[in-house]
Amino acid sequence: MAILNSILQVEGLTKSFGDLVLLENVSFGLAEGQRVGLIAKNGTGKSTLLNILSGREGYDEGKISFRRDLRVGYLEQNPCYPEGLTVLEACFHHGNSTVELIKEYEKCMATEGHPGLDDLLLRMEQAKAWEYELKAKQILSQLKINDFDRKVKHLSGGQLKRVALAHTLIVEPDLLILDEPTNHLDLDMTEWLEEYLRRSNLTLLMVTHDRYFLDRVCSEIIEIDHKQLYHYKGNYSYYLEKRQERMDAKTVEVERARNLYRTELDWMRRMPQARGHKARYREEAFYELEKVAKQHFENRQVKLDVKASYIGNKIFEADHLCKSFGNLKILDDFSYIFARYEKMGIVGDNGTGKSTFIKILMGLVKPDSGTLDIGETVRFGYYSQEGLQFDEQMKVIDVVRDIAEVIELNGGLRFTASQFLQHFLFSPETQHSYVYKLSGGERRRLYLCTVLMRNPNFLVLDEPTNDLDIVTLQVLEEYLQNFKGCVIVVSHDRYFMDKVVDHLMVFNGQGDIRDFPGNYTQYRAWKEARQEHEREQANVRTTPAETKTARRRTDEKRRLTFKERREMEQLEQEVAALEAEKKQLEEELCSGTLSVEELTTKSKRLPVLNDELDEKSMRWLELSEWE
Questions:
Q1: pLDDT, tens digit (0-9, with 9 covering 90-100), for 351-376
Q2: How far apart are alpha carbons 146 and 168 in whole angstroms?
Q3: What confidence score (pLDDT) does residue 122 get?
Q4: Are 381 and 451 in contact (CB under 8 A)?
Q5: Which of 379, 421, 467, 553 could join 444 in a cystine, given CB atoms 3.0 to 4.6 angstroms apart?
Q6: For residue 290, what pLDDT is reported?
Q7: Type and span of the H or E element at 31
Q8: Is 244 exposed, middle or buried (0-12, 13-18, 19+ CB in 10 A)?
């Protein structure tokens, strides 16, 4: 069915990898202004669908139609740029029509006679290309990236994700496709992006595990389940309610079909070979009924009831720890005594030292000074950002067997490696498949499996929510809430932190670490209340005259356009060249070695040179007033 104001239409899409069918005869559309969240379990084709829509991957059957002249922006889950690029160059990498137009303009200006300049100037104005670089710098600054000349190879994962986000947003796309946009973003950046998307008029198709983000940004949900798409007209909370209704209705339908199937199967067995027309009709209906009755419809979930080993009263004591990298302080005389069964969340901006603190605790990084005393009964289970480095050619089941053949669960249950993997939603077929065939989320689930099967009593989880599907996250949250041991979680997932931790350790940077007695939502409310109080105090201290003066200066200030900034850079080069020419000219005129003809020529050149220099210097000063 056609959609009003449709910008994207997908019809009969089918995609498979060998024998694995991910999408089968899928159809859907997007209308202008829709904000759609895409939900599915790991390995069922979310990223594959986004890659197909962005043109990065092909498909077997079907048709994809975009509105003519539609600008599409795509943020990949793991963006990658050539290492030699600077931050600003990365924003223009892989080009678009505006970037190509700027390159065409620069090439024209570098060519003698500037062929086609008039047409280019008109096109630059129409495309608003003069402001493109300025816009890129503004968005990068809002994303707290201020070193535009820094090489991308020196960026952290969070910084690289922000550069890729800026790269995607500056083109002002009509359709924005986001694959896990909050991965590696700190909490402030996640909230900035959330507010940016809520205020924009973009059409949005997004995959994310961040349920607060999904609930506040998206107004519709598409779920991929058993190779099919299901639509829900509402946010994430509405989706949960309606999905359960769908599951209950499906269970009733399958059960009813199975009861009728048993009756029809008895009729098929008793029916003689020579059948009439009605019998043949009933036989065809029987085979259709059989398809429904034999559906393996299971709402399976990961069941994390792995046994935690005994843990004593002494956990760990940090005494006057210090750690720095050059001028960057991570820990500054940090002392803390960790309590039994404590569940701590660690939050803070990227680069404030959260992961370094975890690595010091795990013995992977040494402090500059101070001591760390860990209890004898403590058995760490460490889930790191980098993840377990699997042998790509190993089979999934062999990864688990290399750790243990038998795993003990709560209640005295003992599982074989294969049974334990089925507990984690790895089917027998997947267990005997190779690691390189797993999706990113499936690898993370396997990694989590290898951490928990060692029966730790102190879990240290560094960004555990990245790449895990929402179903797995829900059960992991329940497991951690009931975990009979200690937990430290570093995460940018606000919902996850609210469900799991008792208190927060807030890393403010430069060794400033504060303990907050509550979850993230409570901390955020306290922080906003404090900021509001500080603003009110600042307003009281500011006199009316000072406020009015400041406002007038702000109104009079304006920023340079792309064209003016280019002009200013060109003037700097020209003024320097003219000053060098003037100096050389004055030295030659005073040398006494010039002929009469040379002396005349150079004497005429000097006043012209001074006029040019005055004119260009005045223009540069004018522009610098707006800089």
A1: 788 989 999 999 999 999 999 999 99
A2: 17
A3: 86
A4: yes
A5: 467
A6: 66
A7: strand 20-31
A8: exposed
Q: In sequence order, what E strands does 137-261 have?
A: 175-179, 203-207, 220-225, 228-232
3-state secondary structure of 174: coil
Q: What is the mean pLDDT of residues 452-476?
A: 87
Please state, in angstroms and rounded to a whole number, the distance separating the CA atoms of residues 538 and 535: 5
Q: With 50 as the cut, is the pLDDT of residue 546 above it? A: no
Please give the Cα distance from 345 to 354 (Å, whole number): 10
Residues 192-211 as b/e (b if ≥16 CB within 10 A, e otherwise) read bbbebbeeeebbbbbbbbbb
Residues 328-349 have a mean pLDDT of 92
Distance CA(58)–CA(52), nearest Å, equals 6
| Better-predicted residue by pLDDT, 140 or 413 | 140
Overall residue count recorded for the chain in this entry? 627
Bridge-based pairing of strands 316-325 and 369-374 is antiparallel
Rounded to whole angstroms, the Cα distance separating 303 from 282 reads 42
Q: Which residues pair with 487 in a beta bridge?
A: 343, 459
What type of residue is 76?
Answer: E
The SS3 assignment for 230 reads strand
pTM of the entire predicted model: 0.70
State the average pLDDT over residues 443-460. 89
Q: What is the dihedral of CA 153, 157, 161, 163, to 10 degrees?
A: -30
Sheet holding 61-66, edge to edge: 20-31, 6-17, 61-66
| Confidence at 1, pLDDT banded by 50, 70, 90 | very low
Nearest C-alpha neighbor of 73 from the set 212, 206, 213: 206
Q: Which residue has the tokens 């008792």?
A: 502
Contact status, residue 124 vs residue 101, Cβ threshold 8 Å: yes
Q: What is the 3-state secondary structure (H, E, C) of 296-326?
A: CCCCCCCCCCECCCCCCCCCEEEEEEEEEEC
| Residue 533 near residue 374, CB atoms below 8 Å | no
Tokens of 149: 């000349």
Mean pLDDT over each residue of the chain, to the nearest integer: 82
87 vs 565: CA distance, rounded Å: 19
The top-scoring range by mean pLDDT among 261-270, 489-498, 548-557, 604-613 is 489-498
Question: What pLDDT is stored for residue 599 in this prediction?
Answer: 67
3-class DSSP assignment, residue 373: strand
Name the percent of the chain in helix, strand, coil, to the closest 5: 45, 20, 35
Q: Which two tokens stand for residue 349?
A: 């901006």
**Token digits of residue 91:** 């924003």
Residue 205 contacts residue 75 (beta carbons within 8 Å): no
DSSP 248: H
Q: Running DSSP on this structure, what letter comes out for residue 603?
A: H
Region 131-154 average pLDDT: 84
